[in-house]
Write a structure and sequence with these properties.
The complex is a heterodimer of chains A (271) and B (287).
Chain A lengths: L1 E5 L7 H12 L2 E4 L7 H5 L4 E13 L9 H5 L5 E3 L4 E3 L9 H5 L5 E16 L1 E8 L7 H8 L8 E4 L6 H7 L4 E6 L3 H16 L4 E8 L5 H9 L2 E7 L2 H8 L4 H4 L1 H14 L1
Parallel strand pairs in A: 1-8, 1-9, 2-7, 2-8, 9-10, 10-11
Antiparallel strand pairs in A: 3-6, 4-5, 6-7
Helix pairs in contact in A: 1-11, 5-6
Chain B lengths: L1 E3 L7 H8 L6 E4 L7 H5 L2 E8 L4 E4 L9 H5 L5 E2 L2 E2 L9 H5 L5 E4 L4 E8 L2 E8 L6 H19 L4 E4 L6 H7 L5 E5 L3 H16 L4 E6 L5 H14 L2 E6 L4 H7 L4 H4 L1 H25 L1
Parallel strand pairs in B: 1-10, 1-11, 2-9, 2-10, 11-12, 12-13
Antiparallel strand pairs in B: 3-8, 4-7, 5-6, 8-9
Helix pairs in contact in B: 5-6
The chains are: A alpha/beta (271), B alpha/beta (287).
Chain lengths: 271, 287
């Protein structure tokens, strides 16, 4: 069973829900927010690097190159500039599609690679895998894809998704059995939740909602869920105690036992 | 200038929407996959442009001989059982290249919309990416170009950008080439971790940074850690904002805090004055 925790808007409590759920049901946790991975701040496992994320990069053989520009004309990412006696690659624009190598008539392009991120693994109570994209890189999706190679076929996996509704989020959600959408009852939270819900529907994955900071804002999220027939799986009230525990990197369900039980019940409902 | 944070939900958009009441700039929401600024600025749209980001491959089933060349060549695992998974397709053009029977072609698709609008605070440009589309960085660039055009046309010398969360493609497109990045931090271990990463991104792209601490009183010990960190790195802290439910109440009413609460508004006003001073210094450095 693969459960993805997503939200659209950032800072609504994805990591809080993913961490507390994984701890309560003893699942393996995957931090797919590779731009800003936070889950291990709460798990506190001693992480070891298990893999490098590499992207294919063209390498130009200037002895064979005739500077015909066919590669640059093919490249949709404008990652190659061909000058009169040199070829320049802009690596952060390159998607690693490999098209330039195929179009080169002189066999002057070979495959190199460069590292854009790393995969870590550790254990403290539960197992955690984490992807980290290198600072300055633009492409988070290949890092998520690599991390997902470690998702186990048996057992329960909880995936903590990045914010937004773009490519890295889709890569995370893809192949999940269930999506938990964490939102807050505010206009910003509601607006972005609707987009994330549309995305889950588009990918044909069943979804349920956790309303975090319940009690602030308004009732627009609840109304929408009622009208659309989306299950509200849990409401986490706004509480200074929970906020403070969060700020210190302590999962609140391991501190407040009745919440551990609530997360187990939540899993019973979706599992 | 750009307002960024690394971690989501630290208060970027609340900050930017308040700045809108304090300066006559062009505002641009570059958080294209989860835009929120328009919920406060309530734009009257004057122009609407489709955004065609990446093309998508299409396989002609009548021509396809099911040889599997395309599937083997695709680095994005976007072809399965001789069908294109549109959400994964980057439109790179490799599959039409390798197809021996010319059964694959690339097609344009609308990935989003760019809006130009009037608001009660002036000019506003924002982009909305269709859910699940690729290439949000390119849409950010389109929003910024449009904002630049308007600024030039109207003789405005400032553009204020609301950046997305994270540090990847759309964030780099939002920060690159700006004169100042205001980083909104929060005194939680997670947000501090993320702040350090976004500061590195800004440094990587040579953008000067200043920091504001939002909800500083949620954990004053962590707030001090942010202050220490910034002091060590020589990054100026422009202000500290207390946690207050009135920020959410203002949002529910569709207002910024300047409009909603005088006392809290004063804190933001002071931060804005310091931002303006900083921008003035940058202007001098450049000329």
């Amino acid at each position: 069973m693969i459960i993805t925790v997503a939200s659209g808007k950032g800072g609504t409590g994805k990591t809080t829900v993913a961490v507390n759920l994984a701890l309560a049901i003893e699942a393996t946790l995957y931090d797919c927010d590779v731009e800003e991975p936070n889950a291990n701040i709460f798990i506190k496992a001693d992480l070891q690097k298990v893999d490098d994320v590499k992207l294919m990069n063209p390498v130009f053989d200037l002895q064979k190159c005739t500077f015909c520009k066919k590669c640059a004309e093919f490249c949709k990412y404008n990652a190659i500039a061909v000058l009169s006696s040199d070829v320049i690659l802009f690596p952060e624009l390159c998607s690693g599609c490999g098209g330039c190598k195929i179009v080169c008539p002189y066999d002057a392009i070979s495959e190199g690679s460069r590292s854009i991120g790393e995969i870590y693994h550790g254990k403290n109570g539960i197992e955690i895998y984490q992807g980290v994209m290198n600072v300055g890189e633009a492409r988070a999706t290949p890092v998520v894809a690599k991390l997902k190679e470690y998702v186990k076929k048996d057992g329960i996996s909880v995936l903590d998704a990045p914010p937004g509704n773009g490519c890295p989020v889709i890569e995370t959600m893809h192949g999940s059995d269930f999506v938990i959408l964490v939102t807050e009852p505010t206009p910003f939270g509601f607006h972005d939740f609707k987009i994330a819900y549309e995305l889950a529907k588009k990918l044909d994955i069943p979804a349920g909602v956790v309303i975090n900071r319940y009690g602030v804002g308004d009732d627009s999220v609840e109304k929408y869920c009622r009208d659309e027939g989306v299950d509200v799986l849990m409401k986490i009230p706004y509480s200074r105690e929970i906020a403070e525990l969060y700020s210190k990197g302590i999962p609140f369900a391991s501190h407040i036992p009745e919440w551990r039980k609530k997360f187990q019940e939540l899993y019973e409902v979706i599992g | 200038m750009v307002v960024a944070s690394g971690k989501g939900g630290t208060g970027k958009t609340s900050m930017v929407s308040s700045f809108a009441a304090l300066t006559n700039a062009v505002f641009a929401d570059c958080d294209v996959d989860a835009p929120n600024l328009h919920l406060i600025l309530k734009p009257e749209i004057t122009e609407k442009m489709p955004y065609e980001g990446m093309e998508v491959a299409r396989i002609d089933e009548g021509k396809c001989i099911k040889c599997g060349e395309c599937e083997r060549a695709c680095r994005f695992n976007a072809i399965e059982n001789f069908k294109v998974i549109e959400e994964k397709c980057e439109g790179c053009g490799v599959c039409p290249l390798v197809c021996p029977v010319d059964a694959i072609t690339l097609h344009k698709r609308v990935n989003g919309i760019v809006y130009v609008a009037d608001t009660r605070f002036g000019d506003f440009v924002y982009g909305i990416l269709s859910p699940g589309e690729e290439a949000s960085g390119k849409l950010v660039t389109m929003v910024r170009k449009k904002a630049q055009e308007i600024a030039e046309k109207k003789g405005k010398d400032l553009i204020v950008i609301d950046a997305p969360a994270g540090i990847g493609c759309p964030v780099i497109s939002s920060i690159g080439g700006t004169d100042l990045a205001v980083i909104v931090a929060e005194p939680t271990m997670a947000a501090i971790h993320d702040m350090e990463r976004i500061l590195k991104v800004a440094e990587h792209f040579n953008v000067p940074t200043v920091v504001c601490i939002n909800k500083y009183d949620i954990n004053e010990e962590q707030s001090r850690k942010i202050e220490e960190y910034c002091r060590e790195k020589g990054i100026e802290i422009l202000g500290k904002i207390p946690f207050n439910k009135k920020f959410t109440e203002a949002m529910v009413e569709g207002k910024n805090i300047i409009e909603y609460d005088e006392e809290l508004g004063k804190i933001i006003r002071e931060i804005w004055n310091r931002v303006e001073k900083k921008l003035g210094e940058r202007q001098k450095e450049k000329t």
